[in-house]
Amino acid sequence: MTDSRLARRLHGALRRTRRDYAAGHDRPLGGYVAAMAGFAAYTAAWTTAVRRSGRPLPDRPEPWDVVLMSVATFRLSRLLSKASVTSPLRAPFTRYVGPRGPAELHEEAQSEQGKHTVGELATCPFCMSVWVASTLTAGRLLWPRATRTAMGTLTALAGADALQLAYGALVDKATGD
């Protein structure tokens, strides 16, 4: 079989897969493949930096670090994907819909090719958390003290947010609002 014939058959199979998977919906599978490739390249780059630094890897993560990283990942992911103040970072890829929760926005990914996948990533705290956790992991391995300090700050912000929401709920209950 010639190379061009093989390429046509492969292209046809990919087109059928995309059509069958989408079930009539617009699903940007190509964008998702690009995002996965970008994440793989990003992870490979920081992994290489960790290797070249000569720092030994821990045998296992300490439980406290896992808790700290979990809360920090939660807070930074929401800050990046939902906060009003970070909307200029998302604006090239999203459309403002309205407010959603205290100091958070509801935005939708732009439908333009190439912007949709980035817009989905930028507005989804669950999607963003994969990148944030990976970045914090790299930071812990390359710059442990600075990263632990940053994670402590993000954890304190998450705690402060929880206290603000609890206080607001108590005031509403006490005043009958």
Question: What's a quick, concise take on this entry?
Answer:
The protein is mostly helical. The protein has seven helices and two strands; from the N terminus they run H-H-H-H-E-E-H-H-H. The mean pLDDT is 92.
Describe it for me?
The protein has 177 residues and is mainly alpha-helical. Helix content is 72%, strand content 6%. It has seven helices and two strands, in the order ααααββααα. A two-stranded antiparallel sheet has the order 1-2. β1 and β2 form a beta hairpin. The longest helix is centred in the C-terminal third of the chain and has 32 residues. The mean pLDDT is 92.
Q: Please give the number of β-strands.
A: 2
Task: Give the % helix.
Answer: over 70%
State the distance separating the first and last CA atoms.
74 Å
The strand order across the widest sheet is 1-2
Q: Which terms summarize this structure?
A:
single chain, mainly alpha, 72% helix, transmembrane, DUF1360 domain-containing protein, Mycophage_PG1_Gp7, transmembrane helix
Please give the structural blueprint.
Layout: H1 3-22, H2 29-53, H3 63-82, H4 87-90, E1 94-99, E2 105-109, H5 115-123, H6 125-142, H7 144-175
Antiparallel strand pairs: 1-2
Keywords: Membrane, Transmembrane, Transmembrane helix
Protein name: DUF1360 domain-containing protein
Transmembrane segments: 29-50
